[in-house]
Write a structure and sequence with these properties.
The structure is a single chain. The chain is mainly beta. It has a single domain, classed as Neuraminidase (6 Propeller). It contains three helices and 24 strands. Strand 2 and strand 3 form a beta hairpin.
Length: about 350
């Protein structure tokens, strides 16, 4: 009864805020519209959404609301699709946000503590229970996943940076981290952590993904991961972006099960001729978005540009420059609209994709 009430209230808010239907089956059908054929024209929508301070990330949630990490203002924002602020949550320096299919928000931010009488700040990962909060971000309870509460703070916690979150259809999720110590074979700083639900439905750290090189300068690398993004499909594929020394700074990893075992492999090979896998194609990629048709959008802070690729890695468009945005740190796509986070100018820029068939 309680769950039905919460979903009913959620639907009412959503209809009044943006007129879109609430649907939890998005991993089957996709929740975005994308171009399939024809030339695409990017029409800038006005006005820009402003009032942010060094924002870093944006998503269209599984609940179809928009979430923005307003990093410089130490808050996570919940918006409707008109850009109206519905609610907010104070969090220290939120950097990345994702939402699972139970509508929990997973947020990378900071954690302040005191060690031996000295104030210290470190990276942290939080989980926000939107259902328990009646889908009001301000009142939704927050728990900390990392550093794990009750376990104390280690040297590892102090030196790590958490950089990306990808969620999957079964509510498992990955968290990427980076750090300077990568000599350990068992637990290098540059890693991707895997979380799954245990029998009690609690998030449980399974371990780090194997066979991904913490110092690699080529494929299957965790050398300075800057973001992760999963697919709205019944698989555990994901795309990662890299800021470390690597020739292929955007990589699509697909999970393969064969008679030889189970492992991640590269979906698009450098020898396959795809534009996405050209050597040194990107400078400092910061985020990826995927639309319903499988087109991939890559934001590159180093080039102040956004690229659009088809599902085979062929480049379709590239645009950017200071007349559009500066330091595009995050992006998302929904209903033929591309949302780009302009970190330097503290705003969200929107483009409608108009297709001439």
């Amino acid at each position: 009864m309680k769950k039905t009430f919460v979903l009913s209230v959620l639907a009412l808010i959503l209809f009044s805020g943006c007129g879109e239907k609430f649907d939890l089956s998005v991993f089957d059908s996709g929740k975005t519209g994308g171009n399939v054929t024809g030339d695409t024209v990017y029409i800038k929508l006005t006005p820009d959404w402003t009032g942010f301070n060094s924002p870093t990330d944006i998503i269209i949630g599984k609940d179809y609301f928009i979430y923005v990490t307003d990093t410089g203002n130490d808050r996570l924002l919940m918006l409707n699709q008109n850009g109206d602020q519905l609610s907010s949550k104070t969090l220290p320096k939120p950097l990345k946000v994702e939402q699972d299919y139970q509508l929990n928000l997973i947020v990378i931010g900071k954690f302040d503590t005191v060690l031996n009488g000295v104030p210290r700040t470190m990276d942290a990962v939080y989980k926000i229970d939107m259902v328990a909060g009646g889908h009001n971000l301000a009142s939704a309870p927050v728990t900390r996943l990392l550093p794990k509460p009750g376990s104390g703070v280690s040297d590892l916690d102090l030196r790590l940076s958490y950089t990306g979150v990808s969620v999957f259809y079964n509510n498992s999720f990955y968290i990427s981290r980076t750090g300077p110590n990568n000599t350990s074979v068992v637990n290098p700083d540059n890693s991707i952590l895997s979380y799954q639900k245990n029998a009690s439905r609690q998030d449980t750290l399974i371990g780090r993904l194997p066979a991904i090189d913490p110092n690699g300068t080529g494929i299957l690398s965790a050398n300075g991961i800057s973001s992760l993004v999963g697919f709205d499909k019944k698989n555990i594929d994901f795309i990662l972006t890299l800021s470390g020394d690597n020739s292929f700074r955007v990589q699509w990893l697909t999970y393969v099960v064969s008679s030889l075992g189970e492992q991640y492999e590269l979906k698009l090979s450098p020898s396959g001729g795809s534009d996405l896998m050209q050597i040194n194609k990107f400078t400092l990629p910061s985020d990826v978005a995927i639309d319903r048709s499988g087109n991939m959008y890559v934001a590159d802070i180093g080039k102040d540009s956004v690229y659009r690729f088809n599902s085979f890695g062929g480049q379709l468009q590239k645009f950017g420059g200071p007349e559009n945005f500066s330091q595009p740190s995050g992006l998302t796509h929904y209903d033929r609209v591309l949302f780009v986070v302009d970190k330097l100018n503290g705003k969200i820029v929107r483009y409608r994709l108009s297709t001439d068939n």
